[in-house]
Amino acid sequence: MSRTRLYLFDTTLRDGAQTAGVEFSLEDKIAITAMLEELGVDYIEGGYPGANPVDTAFFEQRRTKRASFTAFGMTKRAGRSADNDPGVQALLQSQADATCFVAKAWDYQVELALGSTTDEHLEGLAETVRVAAAAGKEVLIDLEHFFDGYKANPTYALACVTAALDAGARWVVLCDTNGGTMPSEVREIVGTVLEHAPGEKLGIHPHDDTGQAVANALAAIEMGVCQVQGTLNGLGERCGNTNLVSLIPTLMLKPYYAQRFETSITLERLARLTHISRAFDDRLNRAPARQAPYVGASAFATKAGIHASALLKDFSTYEHVTPESVGNERSIMVSQQAGKSNLLTALARHDIRIEKDDPRLEKLLAEVKQREAFGYSYDGADASFCVLAHEVLGTLPSFFEVEHYRAMVERRHNAQGEEMTVTEAVVKLRIDGELLMSVAEGNGPVNALDQALRKDLGKYSALIEDVELADFKVRILDGGTGAVTRVLVESRDASGERWVTIGVSPNIIDASFEALYESITYKLLKTEAALGSTVTAHRRPVLAAG
């Protein structure tokens, strides 16, 4: 039986940015795009070029390699042509492959929000589509409040669908903007829409205000819609959007859907789902939801008792899919089973080959679990995992040893009598027995330590001169005066590669320095073959900030 192709449209960088407490920097957007590319979605909607400096900068160049790079905006304003509308032109002049225009499918919204008429709005919708298609863009129309609009005035709502398709739109997306539509209503209304438009031209975009966004997406798919829009971990305003992290494995692993539909995601990419979900949360400085379907730490966890006993005999008894299929792991709390297969997969990503019965694997697994109990999280800090693995396996070259570091912040007045803050850092390290000391000033203690650490690395200096600090995030894991601090440092080099390292300590400076140290170590590890370094066991420095 031939399967229907479903297209996955991710709107994390736009819809997700509307989440309370979430602000994406340009570096965040670039890094999240890489996560989405790793997952393998078809479309990545990056935001609204021209609306703010971050989105404008993001669309100055193409940011995707495989997915369709998509810009979001509004159809032309009433009273002017699409050629003379700055918002429309900003989208057409961006480096996006596709443009997603939002239009009002509810007559009440047209009159209330736009102060326009339905006829005028339909004319503007069609003109916008024609101009964008003529500019070589793949055009999508997001019909905002479609389901509410259909209930109020089905004639106008359906006219929006046909006007967009007649003008040349590739996709018309039906939006449940306030998230209040029930799955039964979605089936009924989508069924009617399919009498006027083919399923291969239709998309669904449910919000999660009743906790049914994934169910509504599945209902639309079952009826024949071929595109679904959602976000990583269900991010979005109010209660969020369709959670692609829950929807994708359901489509791929549940026989009813897997036998009828296919997506762009491979089983190999699906096995990275848990890692991507948690790395995304780490970037947002928030704790991953432990009970999240498929990817939560408790998704395959069972305490002692009859369930655990049954699991020991047949794991499928209480698991609807295998944990490994989504990159998660089984946790039976009385025996602390599992973890080795995931560890072997993670090691293979760094070209570290080890047999599954190698006793060092047990040692590494124990070390990872111990560190995670203290506050480390390697899902979002893969470079630190690489360094740790080499260390525990005894294959970490002894590049340099840090003997001492100090960071000092001083508030003083300059020659003009203006109050200013000066930060200075000192780092002493030893390479091949030679003691090197560097002093640097920076914009804060972390920047100063970063500058001092990289200022003079002896024979390795040329190998790290293109390394720069791209992002820095701090999260307090436990409140109170004895709080544990987790620091994530993102670095990049001239090749375009980015990597994230982690440091954890009650002292924020100590945690920051650990992450900086591992960033440099990881960079040197990448060039180990060229260095011809002697491979020796090498313990990381555990120093208190001076």
Automatic annotation (TrEMBL):
EC nos: 2.3.3.21
List, for all copies, the residue spans of the domain called Pyruvate carboxyltransferase.
6-271
Please provide the Gene Ontology terms (biological process) for this protein.
isoleucine biosynthetic process; L-leucine biosynthetic process
Q: What class of enzyme is it?
A: transferase
- Carries keyword Transferase? yes
Q: Name one GO molecular function term.
A: (R)-citramalate synthase activity
Catalyzed reactions = pyruvate + acetyl-CoA + H2O = (3R)-citramalate + CoA + H(+)
The source's domain of life comes to: Bacteria
Instruction: Tell me the pathway.
Output: Amino-acid biosynthesis; L-isoleucine biosynthesis; 2-oxobutanoate from pyruvate: step 1/3
Matching InterPro entries: 2-isopropylmalate_synth_dimer (IPR013709), AIPM/Hcit_synth_CS (IPR002034), Aldolase_TIM (IPR013785), Citramal_synthase (IPR005675), LeuA/HCS_post-cat (IPR054691), LeuA_allosteric_dom_sf (IPR036230), PYR_CT (IPR000891)
Q: What's a Pfam family this protein contains?
A: HCS_D2
The record ties this protein, via CDD domains, to:
DRE_TIM_LeuA3
Keyword annotations of the record:
Amino-acid biosynthesis, Branched-chain amino acid biosynthesis, Isoleucine biosynthesis, Transferase
Name the NCBIfam families on file: citramal_synth
Protein family according to the UniProt entry: Belongs to the alpha-IPM synthase/homocitrate synthase family.
Protein name, entry field: Citramalate synthase
Biological source species: Devosia aurantiaca
